[in-house]
């Protein structure tokens, strides 16, 4: 293969049989269960990187069923998202969320999410199911149970406009790719948005959340002090591509 052909075709690994297709990626009937809880503010400050600033002492624990996603197929994801504030170089303050941890059961979105955006994805076994009048979410890392979440099924319908505004806020993550000598080649703060969002329904209900300690799945690093609220909603959306907002290897 000629050098020019390598340059033209190289967008993901392996070169001749990439682990995922080119974006964009669209998601249909994406089902969310989000439990908001209070945690230790010192623990939050220890995991959120500057120049992001932590807002309050809350974490959103999410289970997401993705039965129909272009390029990635059918999979389930779970993880922790932290409310943050970011000040742009022009001085504009943005409120959004920092994606702290993600666990999922499909290799293609793990590779694509890490390599394109910098999503902190690891292979595990999350499940979201409907058991009679209860939504049940679990996360196993190997054979070990790390998370149990439960929520009452569609107790109260929620207005869609406030949720749509929340989903329009940016999300941030730390993209790290090492050099061949093990030093960091890329270390960037990335911002992205959800696009073309169509909310199909949203509901609230009582919820409970338990996090268990694990050396390699450290969700319990942000312990549950109090469950504040829970929401269950379904949407179609497009995962927008990211942009670099801070380069840790170039900025002091």
Automatic annotation (TrEMBL):
One of its GO terms (molecular function) is acetoacetate decarboxylase activity. Its EC number is 4.1.1.4. Keywords: Lyase. NCBIfam families: PRK02265.1. It comes from the Bacteria. InterPro entries: Acetoacetate_decarboxylase (IPR010451), ADC_dom_sf (IPR023375). This is Acetoacetate decarboxylase. It comes from Rhizobium pisi.
């Amino acid at each position: 293969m000629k050098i020019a052909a390598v340059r033209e075709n190289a967008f993901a690994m392996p070169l001749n049989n990439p682990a995922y297709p080119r974006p964009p990626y669209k998601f249909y009937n994406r089902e969310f269960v989000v439990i908001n809880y209070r945690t230790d503010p010192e623990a939050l400050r220890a995991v959120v990187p500057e120049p992001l600033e932590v807002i309050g002492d809350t974490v959103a624990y999410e289970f997401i069923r993705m039965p129909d996603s272009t390029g990635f197929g059918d999979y389930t994801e779970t993880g922790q998202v932290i409310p943050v504030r970011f000040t742009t170089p022009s001085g504009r303050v943005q409120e959004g969320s920092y994606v702290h941890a993600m666990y999922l059961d499909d290799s293609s979105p793990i590779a694509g999410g890490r390599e394109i955006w910098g999503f902190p994805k690891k292979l595990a076994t999350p499940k979201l199911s409907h058991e009679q009048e209860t939504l049940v979410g679990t996360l196993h890392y190997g054979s070990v149970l790390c998370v149990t979440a439960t929520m009452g099924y569609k107790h109260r319908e929620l207005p869609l406009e406030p949720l749509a505004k929340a989903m329009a806020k940016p999300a941030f993550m730390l993209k790290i790719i090492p050099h061949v000598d093990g030093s960091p080649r890329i270390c960037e703060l990335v911002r992205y948005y959800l696009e073309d969002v169509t909310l199909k329904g949203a509901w609230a209900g009582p919820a409970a959340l338990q996090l268990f300690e694990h050396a390699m799945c450290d969700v319990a690093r942000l312990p549950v002090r109090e469950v504040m609220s829970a929401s269950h909603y379904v949407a179609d959306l497009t995962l927008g591509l990211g942009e670099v907002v801070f380069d840790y290897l170039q900025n002091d």
